[in-house]
Structure formats: C-alpha cells, structure tokens
Hints:
The radius of gyration is 16 Å and the shape is globular. It has helices spanning about 30-40, 55-70, 120-135, 150-155, 185-200; strands at about 15, 20-25, 75-80, 85-95, 100-110, 140-145, 160-170, 175-185. It is α+β, with helices and mostly antiparallel strands. The protein contains five helices and eight strands; from the N terminus they run E-E-H-H-E-E-E-H-E-H-E-E-H. About 35% of the residues lie in helices and about 30% in strands. Strand 4 (about 85-95) and strand 5 form a beta hairpin.
Amino acid sequence: MNKISNFNFTDPIILEDDFVLLRPLQESDVENLLDISINEPETWKYSLVGADGEENLINYMQQAVKARENEKEFPFIVFDKKSQKYAGSTRFYDINLEFKTLQLGYTWYGSAFRGTGLNKHCKFLLLQFAFETLGLERVEFRADNNNERSIAAMKSIGCKVEGVLRSNMPTRENNLRRDSIVLSILKNEWFDEVKENLKRKLK
C-alpha cells in the first residue's frame, strides 16, 4: 500500500483564492478570534470543545496546535479577504495517510460570515488540496445529528449521507450523549461532479 509522501505537518500550508485565505492556526491567533469568542458563545453550541470566552479560546488554540505538533491534526485559521477580517477556523483531523483518508471538521465562523459563501470557498480549497495535492480517496465529515445548519451546509457542497452513529460521543452537557451523522465525498465523486458543482456555487 503506497503511503502519501507529499504531506508534512510542519509545512506552512496556505490555501487561498480571491475571497479567502487559510493558513496554519497559531497560538498567537487568539487575538484574531477573540471578538467572536467573547460575543458569540452560541457558535459552539454543538461542539464538545468550545472556544467561547478568552480562557476557552486559549485552551482551544493550545490543543489544536499541540495536535498538529503530534501529527494528528492540521488546523487552519480562516481570513475573509472581502472584509479583511478573520472569520473562524477549520481543520483536517483523523488523518490516515496510509489509508488515504481524513476528516474535515472543527469548522466554525462568526455570524457575520455565515451565509456569505465563505464556507463554500473554504471547502473548495480544502477538498481540492485533499484530493488533488494529497491524492486522498475519501474525505469524511461528521456533525451532531441535531445540528441542522451544519448538515445542510455539508449537503450543499456535495457530501453524501452514510448514516448515523447512535450515542457516538458525549456533549458539553454532562448527562447527554449525541448521535453523529456521517457524510463523505469520495475521490471519483470529486472529479466526476462535486468539484464542478461546487465551483458553480462560488460567489
């Protein structure tokens, strides 16, 4: 089995188009996302690890950077070129280069950037990198099965629903566990239809 060799967790990967720029998340980015963290705590309603409030944001950043150093995840910060402001964060995780798969998630944006088309630009760049630069076979997405906005966003970029993992993981509310919906895009789907369909939706 051929393992992907053109990916290094220390690489300063930058993905960009005319509307958005994604670069590696750093601990010093706390200042860039603090306004969203303090003023929009509902952003992490469905997240196990929240970044609401300065203390939680600092912890979130430290965990993300450490995961990259441990070669488990690759977190990005998202910069909106139109407004010249930082919009949020996303990352590759559960990266298995031997199996040529990864998950794309931990995605959140401030309210001013939702519904603007920013997410589709981000997903296009990330999927293009995953399938065309890394040569992956599968990109997986997961969400709380109650998170209708996130599920709709994933379906709109071309993800196909595979099923629901029942009582898959805990939530931030101690006594509740969540069902996780699983979606994915395969390499042949990206090249056959998803890429062009998503490109047409970019604005």
